[in-house]
Every structure is written in C-alpha cells, then in structure tokens.
Amino acid sequence: MSDIQxxxxxxxxxxxxxxxKHEVTSAYTGDIIGTVARANEHDIEEALAxxxxxxxxxxxxxxxxxxxxxxxRAILLMQDQFEELATNSANEGGKPLIDSxxxxxxxxxxxxxxxxxxxxxxxxxxPMGINAASEHRLTxxxxxxxxxxxxxxxFNHPLNLIAHQVGPAIATGCPVIVKPAExxxxxxxxxxxxxxxxGLPAAWCQAVLTENHQIAEQLVTDPRVAFFSFIxxxxxxxxxxxxxxxxxxxxxxxxxxxxxxVAEDANLETAIPALTKGAFYHAGQVCVSVQRxxxxxxxxxNVSQQLSEAAEKLIVGNPLSDQTExxxxxxxxxxxxxxxxxxxxxxxxxxxxxxxxxxxxxxxxPTVLFNPSMESKVxxxxxxxPVVCIYPYSDLDQAIKxxxxxxxxxxxxxxxxxxxxxxxxxxRLAASxxxxxxxxxxxxxxxxFAGLKNSGLGTGGVPYTMEDMQIEKMIVISSKxxx
Length: 483
What we know:
Blueprint: E1 5-7, E2 21-25, E3 32-39, H1 41-56, H2 64-80, H3 82-93, H4 97-120, E4 137-145, E5 148-152, H5 160-172, E6 176-179, H6 185-197, E7 205-207, E8 209-210, H7 213-221, E9 225-231, H8 234-243, E10 249-253, E11 259-262, H9 268-280, E12 292-296, H10 300-313, H11 332-347, E13 351-354, E14 358-359, E15 363-364, E16 367-370, H12 377-380, E17 387-393, H13 396-403, E18 408-409, E19 411-415, H14 419-428, E20 433-436, E21 452-453, E22 456-457, H15 462-468, E23 470-478
Parallel strand pairs: 1-3, 3-8, 5-6, 5-9, 6-7, 9-10, 11-12, 11-19, 12-17, 16-17, 19-20
Antiparallel strand pairs: 2-3, 4-23, 10-22, 13-16, 14-15, 18-21
Helix pairs in contact: 1-7, 2-4, 2-5, 2-6, 3-4, 4-5, 5-15, 9-10
C-alpha cells in the first residue's frame, strides 16, 4: 500500500486528514491504484463557504486577463504531462490507451476553446433611440459570472468531462466545486492540481468525494449554488433537479439509446467501420453510442454479417496496451447486467451475430444482435455496453417511428447516398443532432451537445456551457449628448 498515491481533501483551507478514504481500482485488474479522502458534511460546508465568500466579494474576482493566463499555463502543463494523464486515465477507467490519448488531446483543446471564447465573445447591445422613450440613451452589455458552480461528473470521459465542466467555470470566473465519479476520481484530482499549479487560487476550484449520497445532495441543493452541472444517469439527474434551491440554474446530460437508419443505397464500405467504432468505442460506455440500427431489409442481413465480422476482429483486453481496441466495463456488476440483457434478448428471439459472452477482467465481447424484440431491454433502454442491435425494415416511415418511440432523444444518424432521402430522414428523427454518413457518437468540443426528452436539459459544449455560467448585465447610459 505504501506505493499507492493518496489524494487528500481538495478543499481550500482544510488541512485535516479525512476520517474515511475511497479506494480507486483499475477497471481491468481490480488492483487499488489510489486512495481519495472523503468529505463529510462539515467539509462540504467549508467548501461552500469558501466559494460563496470568494464570489460575494467582487474585489476577489479574477480579471479576464488573469483567467486567460491561468488557462494558458494549464494547457502547457497538460501538454507536458500528456502521456502520464492519458495512461492513468486508461488504467482507472478502462478506456483503451489509443482512445485515452485522443481524449487527452480533446481535454487540452477544450481548455483552449475556453481561452478562445474569452478572447472573442461579445454581446449585442440593446438598441436605443428608436422612439421618444429611448432617445438620448445607449446600452452596453457586460458578462459576469453567475456565481458558485457545482459540477457532478461521470466516469466514462474522466479527463474531457472535467474540462467541459470545470474549464468553463474557471474561464467565466465562477468558483467551482466538482464531484468526480468515484470510479475515475484520480484523473479529476490531477487536473485540479494542474489548474492550481497554473496559478489558480485554491478556493476557485475545489474537488470532493463525499462520504455518502446525502452529503452530496446537501452540496448540490445548497442555496449558495448558482449553477448545477450534472453528467450521469437520468434517474439521479432529474431527482437532483427537483431538489435544487430556488434560483439555481442547471444543465443535465443523461444517456440515450441512439438510433441509426441505414438506407438501401448506403455506402457500406464507409458505414461498417464507422458503425463499428460508434458501437464499441469505450466498450459502448458512451451516452450517444450506436445502439439501434434500422436497416433496409434488402441489406439488413449483409450489414449484420459485416458488423459481426468487424466485431470479431476487434482486440479486447488490457486498456494499457497500444493494441487494445475495446477495454473492460467499469465494474463487474456491469458485465453481469449487460450479459443478462443480451441473454434476455436471445431468449425473446434475437439472433446472435457475434459475441454474447463475458471475458476475463471485466470485459465483454463486442456483441451484434439481429432483430431483437422491441420489448427487450436492449431495444428500450441504454445498454451502456458493447452491444449493437440491427432491425430490418421495409417501410421507412415505420422505421423512423420506431427510432423516435422511446422517452430519450440525443444524437442520431443516417446513412444514405441520396441527399433527398438523407434530408427526409434527418428532418423527421427526434434528435438534437443528426449525423449524415457518420456515427451517432461523433462530437467536437465546440459544437452543441444536448439531450432531449429524458436525455437531459440544456446544452453542453464548451461555448454553450460558458454562456450558461454567465449573466448578461445591461447598463443604460442616459445623456443629452447622445444623438
């Protein structure tokens, strides 16, 4: 145990040891790779008091130029520690190293987007002088931080999700308290330390793992919290929203059961590799992972066979290997759950194209199911595992209706070489974004990212989160010298 790194409380002014510790384990080996101090209710009160006091005194606020300088120094530190951060993230979260490196690059780019927004963002003034009441007046709009931000994050992108939640808070001048996912807390704590090394005063960014859910709820629902950012399950997200204090704004990002429609004329040479990546990237543990593929009946069997062959070729195993393409699920009980869902689908009539079995070290074989029942869990709920379903269709409008039939809606995609067909389908899919000839998990960090229906509230993406974390203050100047 002496070689295992311990992370103390990351609360400004709190030096005492924690009464309890959380053990973070490797998703693949199960070995303990770090311990994290847990915060009790008094620690949470201290964190909130520090953050609120900082925000309440405008003389404490960091100027825009100071924030830009801190973020730019943080970028340099992240670049210096690139491989270490990516490797540690792969170890704790199980995302293959090849993909963790991509995530680390995105993490850095997300912070760079924060800087770019600060350099270029502006607000349009409200017009005056257009009638007698508004004569001799002009306006200016100032952006100000909304207040204390509390961010609750998820395990599946432990570097870039923190960049998306904490980066905008630092950029906009909001004191932020972040609660990372317990399974991947180390990546968050390392990033917070980088921000502090870059010159961010400690109270501007605090990180906590709470002793229990009640203390976490105490943090989120405190009236001093101005904005709540949540990435995680719909059950928890909607519950916490119902408990927020009056005036607390929020953004929620939950999961989906992403649909794809493959038309008869789709180019399968490009579609199959993309759908394979979209379905099995990070073992399917992505909120917009390809899950339901509706394929024209004339090519459905061919698509199923090609996807099954592609799934069989994927290298599953140790995320720290440069060869691994699909790593473990985050916990053993998730493997058991996914396995039971697949077995249920098979028992209800689905054909197993490939997979359908567990592997050592919390891994599960990439699995292709053909025509599962619309009543089975794999058709109605987010699998969050390496499972993709193919449904043959003859009537396009019926396929679109099925794609839209669930209480979740996030990103969707269409594969077709016919622009009229692609646009027809895109216009009719219930989604916040539709990809044409691209898989559902496509994302760049400056685009809007929004769950609809039960999939979330508000819009993610760095610029949009920065907008949420600011208020626009209008100043009206009255002077006879103004024409």
